[in-house]
Amino acid sequence: MTRSEKRDFPVEEARHFLEPGPVVLISSHCDGASNIMTLGWHSILAFAPSLVNCMISSGNHSFEMIRRTGECVINLPTLDLADIVSKVGNCTGSEVDKFAEFGLTAKPAEIVYAPLIDECHACFECRVYDDAMVNNYNYFIFEIVKAHVAGDPEHPKTIHYMGDGKFMVAGDVIDRKEFFTKVN
Amino acid sequence: MTRSEKRDFPVEEARHFLEPGPVVLISSHCDGASNIMTLGWHSILAFAPSLVNCMISSGNHSFEMIRRTGECVINLPTLDLADIVSKVGNCTGSEVDKFAEFGLTAKPAEIVYAPLIDECHACFECRVYDDAMVNNYNYFIFEIVKAHVAGDPEHPKTIHYMGDGKFMVAGDVIDRKEFFTKVN
């Protein structure tokens, strides 16, 4: 699969990709091993600092890796990766080296130890910003500290989990700026 | 605009509509007045109880209405409402009666005092479940206590905010159930 080269991207604009609600792949690294999980339960919380929250169920192998290191990368997969996204979400890092199993490329990040998944359209390096909700809700608030985004396409075909093994694929983009008093 | 009649719907399946990340309209009612705001920053947090969290900036007129009453309705608009969704998000309930201004129909809910927006595909009645994050992050955790969903279409053309006045419209639905060990 070809993917246009990723460029540095303003962290406060990461929301343009995450706010529409795509499934993401969370990569982590702990004790010499890397792992990946599929996640649909996240939302933007602030522009600057660039905060995003993720509900990472404690049953996931990634949970302790992220809690202990306080780091992860949020990677944005597209339609061409739908099979892999599904498979990644249906096996556990305690049994499978998911990078090897699914032929994904772990690329060193710049700030965190967790790897970027090179096949994804965008990769957002994250550090835990607030863990106050982790015990009660498995809820992490991350700060995106570095963003890498492919130069094109401008509107990647992200996939949005609907439950029951189905995904909605990103469709047309419409512009309603004319009705906005302040655009952000 | 015609909209098929809404039916009762299992609250724990509300996520099928919210998890893909659509913009929603939040309706509230306090001191005899109803209001509506547009919101894109939400995510599912649990199946049962059916929990969803919403970042409602304290600058919104709806914020105090929801904080004081502990109630709201999350309404799911579709493409035909994109202009209204934009306009609702660009004026304030302190100056405008948004139901009247935009010709929306406030229908009584069953459990909460906040009204359903009848023109929307689905309406989820919510009560505040945990307000521990409201002071720090304007972050409400709601329990969906009653769900109303139109019988068709099965896959409504939801709109997903991207920033800059643009929305992604829900596209095709793909099925990858074959790769799921446990479907939910």
Describe, in plain words, how this protein is organized in 3D.
- 2 copies of one chain form a homodimer.
- Chain A is an alpha+beta fold.
- The first copy, chain A, has one domain: Electron Transport, Fmn-binding Protein, Chain A (Pnp Oxidase, Chain A), CATH 2.30.110.10.
- Helices cover 15% and strands 40% of the residues of chain A.
- Chain A is built from 5 helices and 12 strands.
- Chain A has helices at 15-18, 61-69, 82-88, 98-101, 134-137; strands at 6-9, 24-30, 33-39, 42-46, 51-55, 71-76, 106-107, 116-117, 122-130, 139-150, 159-163, 166-175.
- In chain A, the strands form 3 sheets. In chain A, strands 1, 2, 3, 4, 5, 6, 9 and 10 form an 8-stranded antiparallel beta sheet that branches. In chain A, strands 7-8 form a two-stranded antiparallel ribbon.
- In chain A, strand 2 and strand 3 (33-39) form a beta hairpin.
- The longest helix of chain A has 9 residues, at 61-69.
- Chain A starts with 5 loop residues before the first strand and ends in a 9-residue tail after the last strand.
- The interface between A and B is large, with 60 and 61 residues.
- Strand 12 of chain A pairs antiparallel with strand 12 (166-175) of chain B.
Write the topology of this structure.
The structure is a homodimer of 184-residue chains.
Chain A: E1 6-9, H1 15-18, E2 24-30, E3 33-39, E4 42-46, E5 51-55, H2 61-69, E6 71-76, H3 82-88, H4 98-101, E7 106-107, E8 116-117, E9 122-130, H5 134-137, E10 139-150, E11 159-163, E12 166-175
Antiparallel strand pairs in A: 1-10, 2-3, 2-6, 4-5, 5-10, 6-9, 7-8, 9-10, 11-12
